[in-house]
Amino acid sequence: MEFYPHALLQMIECFAKLPGIGEKTAARLAFNMLKWLKEDAEKFSESIMRVVSEINECKKCFGYTEKEELCLICKNEKRDNKLLCIVEEFSDLAAIEKTGDYNGYYFVLGGRLSPIKGIGPESIHIDELVKRVKLDLSIEELILATNPTVEGEATAFYIAKAVRDLNKKISRIAFGIPMGGDLEYTDKVTLRRAIEGRKTF
Amino acid sequence: MEFYPHALLQMIECFAKLPGIGEKTAARLAFNMLKWLKEDAEKFSESIMRVVSEINECKKCFGYTEKEELCLICKNEKRDNKLLCIVEEFSDLAAIEKTGDYNGYYFVLGGRLSPIKGIGPESIHIDELVKRVKLDLSIEELILATNPTVEGEATAFYIAKAVRDLNKKISRIAFGIPMGGDLEYTDKVTLRRAIEGRKTF
């Protein structure tokens, strides 16, 4: 591809570093960018630099914050300080926040326990979580919202054990058949969870 | 999404402008970029600005060139100046060039005729093509490599008619069953083309 302009090659390489984008898609995206307006490209270019240089971890929840020490959620004093929802990643926080139904605070672990990948409790923010729960006396309930995978479950168990003596209510988000789902086509594990988790009607 | 850092929101918007990337994928890509090394992000950011500000149309073939008037292929005097391959877009040129089998020059139309979309001969570089074929006496053969779509075929016909009197050999790339393909599952139009285009064995 020595006939490609160098900047184009470099851009294809960069796009190909993104998850789920192979070399062909990267080339297609780069060809498309050749036709972008200069001001749109400037905006894109600038946002990339701002994202890596101005966005940092929030000192309190380990989510993302721009320039300031605390993120917009931790700074918001109108939220319910009795609830703390524990998630693996910022993208999980974003998913819950978009429902508009949760008004407590969050804590982003920054991953999940995975002995196979060498991720132990010290690799994610579990110590910080325990410390926060100890110091923040307003917290009454911890909602464990790690994913329903083997690793996510193990992480939830580990946290539950670590905070057991702190005398807080500990809950786990519900797992079962998704809305609009079909019992006939639901996998066994989910169905078992749905039956175990049944509620009085 | 007012809890997103502003730079992140802006980046998601930019990613979502790319073809085939919806809002969810855009968010996934942006979340990934948060974890990029600063030097990689700088490279990406820089390549975007360079692509829109330094890459221009080659004055001769209307492909892309970086900073200079002529692209790397047009500048290369070792190629076969008897052959001129006519394609719709630079990405088609790139596909042919990657085979490594073609050693002539190219001409990029910058689109294809499409009366429905209001793209007439004056919207793509057909006049420039005719002029080039008239002036460049070394050209002996024009290879029409527009796509095998209704619009691509119409464009090929139009060009063939426009250069008919210039006394050059005019050829069209072959269409038929792709290598590794299966006759049983080949569509009728392709099969018809394959039979019509049969060659002595």
Unreliable segments of 5+ consecutive residues of chain A: none
**Count of alpha/pi helices of chain A:** 8
The largest beta-sheet of chain A arranges its strands as 4-3-5-6
| Oligomeric form | homodimer
User: Tell me about the biggest sheet of chain A?
Assistant: 4 strands, parallel
The assigned structural class of chain A equals: alpha/beta
* Largest interface summary: A-B, 56 and 56 residues
Determine the strand fraction of chain A and express it as a percent band. 5-15%
Give a structural overview.
Two copies of one chain form a homodimer. The first copy, chain A, is of the alpha/beta class and 201 residues long. The first copy, chain A, is built from eight helices and six strands. Chain A has helices at 6-16, 23-33, 38-54, 72-75, 90-99, 126-135, 150-162, 188-196, and strands at residues 55-57, 64-66, 80-87, 104-108, 141-144, 169-172. In chain A, strands 4-3-5-6 form a four-stranded parallel β-sheet. In chain A, strand 5 (141-144), helix 7 and strand 6 (169-172) form a beta-alpha-beta unit. In chain A, helix 1 packs across helix 2 (23-33). The longest helix of chain A has 17 residues, at 38-54. The first copy, chain A, is globular, with a radius of gyration of 21 Å. The mean pLDDT of chain A is 93. Chains A and B meet through helix 1, helix 2, helix 3, strand 2 and helix 5 of A and helix 1, helix 2, helix 3, strand 2 and helix 5 of B.
